[in-house]
Amino acid sequence: MKPGDQYGVRIGRALDVWVKLARAYATIQRNSADHVRAFHLTGPQFGVVECLGHKGPLTFSELSKKQLVSGGNMTVVVDNLEKEGIVERARCAEDRRQVYVRLTPKGKKLFERIFPQHADKIAKCMTVLNPEEQDRLAALLKKLGTGVSAAGCGEDHQSAGTDRERSRR
Length: 169
Fold this sequence. Notes:
Largest sheet: 3 strands, antiparallel
Structural class: mainly alpha
CATH class of the largest domain: Mainly Alpha
Low-confidence stretches: 162-169
Mean pLDDT: 87
Number of domains: 3
Number of strands: 3
Helix content: 55-70%
């Protein structure tokens, strides 16, 4: 018997998907973290460098949302990157309460040097799936993430869709 089977087919299937998703993420994350450590960065530090490298200067709030971490944690990450001369803070000219974080020239060089290598590492991890499978998985994960984000986990999305269809008739 598979874990979750005692709860019925619907719950068992959901738990099976969740466990597989979590294990796949953990495996890829471990590979990614090992690669990032080779650059003498933590995962959160690399995330900040990557985000600023692609998006340009961001406020602490924007950066925290993009990185899915609290403002307090982001402050520590930015403090440590600032000590290394990789990022700097800059006050917004229009609203002095806003503080932007941006890459320094040293940070830009670091990003340009390490991100292509990291992206290649991730691409190699994904070659377990063919291109069509990667596209399908990306679409399914987007559907899952946006669906749960929009409605939360309190609603049975399949039943809700069916009920909505019935009410339109």
